[in-house]
Amino acid sequence: MTLDEQTRPDFPILQRIVNGHPLVYLDSGASSQKPRAVLEAMNRYYERSHANVHRSIHTLGEEATELYELARDSAQRFIGAASREEVVFTRGTTDGLGLIAETIGRTLAKGDEIVVTELEHHSNLVPWQLVARDRGAVLKAVPILADGTLDLGALDRLITPRTRVVAFAHVSNVLGTITPVTEIVRRARAVNAITVVDGAQAAPHLRLDMSSLECDFYVFSAHKMLGPTGIGVLYGRRAVLDSLEPGRGGSEMIKEVWIDHAQWNDLPWRFEPGTPPIAEAVGLAAAIEYLDKLGMDRVAEHERALTRQALEGLARIPGVTVYGPPPAIERGAVVSFAVEGLHPHDVAALLDAEGIAVRAGHHCAMPLMRRLDVVGTSRATFSVFNSPDEVSLLLTTVAGLRSAL
Amino acid sequence: MSSSTPSAVPGLYSDVIRDRWRRPRHRGELPGATAVAEDVNPLCGDRVRLMLRVEPEGRIAEARFLGDSCAICTASADVLADLVSGRSRSEAMALEVADVLAVLQAEIRPTRMRCVTLPISVLAQALGVERSRGVPASGHPRSEPDDERSRAVPASGHPRSEPDSRTPLQ
Question: N or C, which end of chain B has less CB nearby within 10 Å?
Fold first, then answer.
């Protein structure tokens, strides 16, 4: 049985008829759909065990705390982190990147350098712009080559003894480019720079192992990997997390408080102020369990096949331009394309009329759009429940679009 | 919610929108423009520049536009250029979204409404510049450091200074 045949019955939303057609959901890169197991786990939590965590001395409070902390253990195993103290729950990738930028930002001095790349999502660019402005730091970007991969040759020029942070995406949300994390980490570490990896597009598709990636921070969201919205994971290498002051204050992140000062809580709670997203943590744990049962290697293989089918099929359609690395180079489950004579938003609207959901626009990566010299692209992204038939339908529909308007 | 809704395309892309997208009447540079403004839709990155030639007594003699924009936004800009031509400045200022929608004859969903309104907000900016600067326009754009996305430009100048300049608007 193929992965999509196995998983499709688990996703209630795939029963939807959209504009008279069965839903073909090719927008998991923006937010994936959720299997019943995730929905039921969250419901069960709310119906049986909900209370606030950590401070409630009653049965429900203890159950909620246990479920929340078990979710942390699940996340730790899922990403191969060395200890549970390295797993901080956030509200999502943007929140995690903002938190770490603010936190590291406080340690930067005038003239310190932050290196990002041209293919960053705004969420891994704008927080560093704010930090650079506040601290008088310098922001630099690693350019991309014509094939959509990073210009690693430029790293030697851009990473200098003044570099304090190197922040980059593991998988581009526009081009699907997979960046060489360990290589970039190695070069950053040579100058003692902290590495921050945006894993939003990687976590749903690749087997992750923090011990082999060796980055200092790795950030991702639950909602792109079959989990709920409102929660994300910030992995932080323990030695680095320990050295940082908390970015945000509130309850849970302190041990003792006086009027004029406070003593910080232990890791990971030091970075989790306020009531956390408890039900969402339960949902994330269920999503991880679901992916684990499928096997991330099998997930990656399935999505790789769909991506290759889409890339090769789109490239054969006259008037269609495909962006990003050529099929020979491995990429994430992301395919951006343009149809000659049509604006990306019109492409998305015309596909929607056939029940096919794709993303269109700048994908929160305006500097990359300028680099590609386009206003935006149309983007199809794939998940465990997508089938080769759905990709075929995308291809035949796109092939008929040029005469549609 | 109903499990089945009628196809979006016939209503969204009306005959007027298709026609204006394929053959816009007012697309192109406007030599001798006295007021120019340009803005982007932050949701999609679409960009529209509107150029007006306003006569000394305040009548809009001609309007043209350039843009990297979708069919709906292009049609809206083209219809708007129709609507303002020959009108006084105050008549043009009084134009509303409903006036453009009435011509477009399309079922615009909320997510695409900005595609319709972008040219209208650019018109307001152009007339604001024109009014504050007098006629004919020359010199430098208003400095608006607080709002990077909304910037009036001189009639003869470049829309923005970006080192990695894009293909010119079409």
Answer: N
Q: Closest to A375 (Cβ–Cβ): which among B3, B68, B71? A: B68
Is the CB of B5 less than 8 angstroms away from the CB of A18?
yes
Which among A6, A34, A4 is positioned nearest to A225, based on CA atoms? A34
Per-domain boundaries in chain A: 3-33+295-403, 39-292
pLDDT given for residue B45 in this prediction: 77
Q: Which helix (H) or strand (E) holds A184?
A: helix A181-189
- Mutation choice for A interface testing from B38, B47, B70, B166 by most A CBs within 10 A: B70
* 3-state SS, residue A95: helix
Check CB contact under 8 Å for B162 and A370.
yes
Query: Using 50, 70 and 90 to split pLDDT, how confident is the model at A69?
Result: very high
Identify the weakest region by mean pLDDT among A86-95, A130-139, A142-151, A255-264: A255-264
Option in B6, B43, B166 nearest A370 (CB): B166
Segment 367-386 of chain A within 8 Å of chain B by CB: 369-371, 373, 375-376
Q: Kindly tell me if the per-residue pLDDT of A287 is higher than 80.
A: yes
CATH level 3 topology of B10-135? Sufe protein. Chain: A (3.90.1010)
Give which of A220, A178, A216 is closest to A194, Cα–Cα.
Answer: A216
In this structure, are residues B22 and A404 in contact, taking their beta carbons and an 8 Å threshold? no
Q: Is A353's CB within 8 Å of B44's CB?
A: no
Chain B residues in contact with A342 by the CB 8 A cut-off are 71
Q: Which DSSP symbol is given to A401?
A: G
- Closest of A390, A216, A249 to residue A309, by C-alpha: A390
Q: What is the DSSP string of A300-345?
A: HHHHHHHHHHHHHHHHTSTTEEE-SS-TTS-B-SEEEEEETTS-HH
pLDDT digits (tens, 9 = 90+) for A331-390: 999 999 999 999 999 999 999 999 999 999 999 999 999 999 998 999 999 999 999 999
Q: Which of A17, A350, A362 sits opposite B3 (nearest CB)?
A: A17
CATH of domain A3-33+295-403: 3.90.1150.10
ipTM: 0.79
Out of 3.30.470.20, 3.30.70.920, 3.30.9.10, 3.40.640.10, the CATH code matching A39-292 is 3.40.640.10
Question: CB A20 to CB B12 under 8 A?
Answer: no
Predicted local distance difference test score (pLDDT) of residue A96: 97
Phi then psi dihedrals of residue A125, to 5 deg? -125, -55
Q: Which of B4, B9, B22 sits opposite A353 (nearest CB)?
A: B9
Contact flag A405-B21 (C-beta cutoff 8 Å): yes
Mean pLDDT by 10 residues, chain B (170 residues): 42 90 96 94 87 94 94 96 95 94 92 93 87 43 38 41 48
Contact A376 B45 (CB under 8 A): yes
Say whether A364 is catalytic: yes
Decide if pLDDT at A192 tops 70: yes
Stretch A56-73: mean pLDDT: 95
By the 8 A CB rule, do A384 and A299 touch? yes
pLDDT digits (tens, 9 = 90+) for B132-165: 544 443 333 333 333 333 444 444 333 433 333 4
